[in-house]
Design a protein that fits this description.
The chain is of the alpha+beta class. Helices cover about 40% and strands about 20% of the residues. It starts with 16 loop residues before the first helix and ends with a strand.
Length: about 400
């Protein structure tokens, strides 16, 4: 019985030439954009010791991470499922900058299972991280760069979904609920399971004011007007909740002049559970899943002995390429047949030096100009080299 050796594992995909050209164009274009905003490129390793790679990231990332045994040390290695923890380690130990540190990256990550049905388990993650600044100005900068990314690649009419994890967490801080109960309520809030939420609150929350505030959260969804309703309905909430609302107000007020479509959801927290403040995601019309997401995660650096405020975002470059309006130049080039003619090599070198794509033929080769992506041919005619359309 012969195996189909050309088959790939479920969720593992390859990128063929035309799409690869677009993905690479976007990678270069976006890293240049991040450079112009002051973000320094880093290239973290594909694998690290698992205890470092998973520090402070929670159970979600732990389950997504492949593990292998290091044959040199005998210790457990992890294949990165997210580059953010690596950037945190680099900021904390490799760079050790005192002031704000801006980093960007692009690289493949690997997941044990797809995050969503039909999604790749080997996305190319591209994004930025901003360390060392706790003010809302840092959140605004990162979200503005997040939106600039979409503009730069020609993504039309995105919707920015924005929330703040400290609103739900702040309400639950003095609720008396056990961690397992908090996790259950959090999961119900993400599913917008209104009937189950109401039943849970009736069963588990004795404080009437808190119960009313928790019931209000799933209804606080919509445009910027949601914040005014939230400030009224959560007026007696703990200080952490009111501070979170004030931060959201500052972020939304800063973004409104851009004309971006803003959707506020005060019960949802996109991304991993390690977020600690403002969280955001971008959605496109007709797409049910976020094309990119990010947020604040101040807690992870403490696991490396150097707590630092942090916020950032990431996109899957392959998914972004599928939604982008920017199309890579298909690489139209010049074909040069196999021949022994004067200065042939010099002609080829000069064309390549000028930026042309030159494909050399072999003796007896069947030429398919479309397959070679060549629209011209360099020919020796009448004693000179001539470029001809094909």
């Amino acid at each position: 019985m012969s195996a189909n050796r050309w088959l790939l594992p479920d969720g593992i995909d390859e990128v063929l030439p035309e799409r690869a050209a677009q993905v690479e164009l976007l990678r270069r274009q976006l890293l240049d954009l991040y450079h112009r905003w002051g973000y320094d490129l880093v290239i973290p390793p594909l694998v690290e010791f698992a205890d470092s790679l998973l520090s402070g990231t929670g159970a979600d990332l732990d389950l997504m991470t492949f593990r292998i045994t290091d044959q040199l040390s005998g210790r457990m290695l992890g294949v990165r499922a997210d580059i953010t923890p690596q950037a945190v380690r680099m900021d904390a130990h490799s760079l050790r900058r005192e002031g704000p540190s801006r980093l960007c990256y692009a690289g493949t990550v690997l997941h044990t299972r797809p995050r969503r049905p039909l999604q790749s388990r080997a996305p190319i993650s591209i994004g930025v991280e901003l360390f060392g600044e706790s003010s809302v100005a840092a959140d605004i900068e990162v979200i503005e760069l997040f939106l600039a990314t979409l503009v730069d690649v020609g993504v039309a009419t995105p919707c920015l979904d924005i929330g703040h994890v400290d609103i739900l967490r702040g309400l639950l801080a003095d609720s008396g609920l056990a961690p397992a109960q908090r996790d259950e309520l959090f999961e119900l809030m993400q599913r917008k399971a209104s009937g189950e939420i109401d039943a849970f609150i009736s069963r588990e929350v004795a404080n009437g004011a808190l119960a009313q505030q928790l019931r209000a959260l799933p209804t606080l969804i919509g445009g910027s007007e949601v914040l005014q309703r939230a400030e009224q309905q959560l007026a007696g909430a703990p200080p952490a909740v009111l501070a979170a609302l004030a931060q959201l107000r500052a972020v939304v007020d800063a973004l409104l002049p851009s004309g971006i479509n803003i959707h506020i959801d005060l019960s949802e927290s996109p991304g991993f559970h390690y977020h600690t403040g403002v969280v955001f995601a971008a959605y496109l019309p007709g797409h049910g899943k976020a094309i990119g997401n990010g947020g604040r995660y101040d807690a992870i650096g403490a696991q490396f002995g150097r707590p630092r405020p942090a916020t950032g975002f990431a996109f899957d470059l392959k998914e972004l390429a599928g939604a982008a309006a920017v199309v890579a130049n298909r690489g139209t080039g010049i074909f040069v047949a196999h021949a022994e003619q004067p200065d042939r090599r010099l002609q080829i070198e000069q064309l390549r030096a000028s930026g042309e794509r030159v494909v050399e033929g072999f003796a007896g080769q069947r030429v398919d100009f479309a397959e070679l992506r060549c629209d011209r041919q360099l020919c020796w005619r009448d004693g000179s080299w001539q470029l001809q359309r094909v």
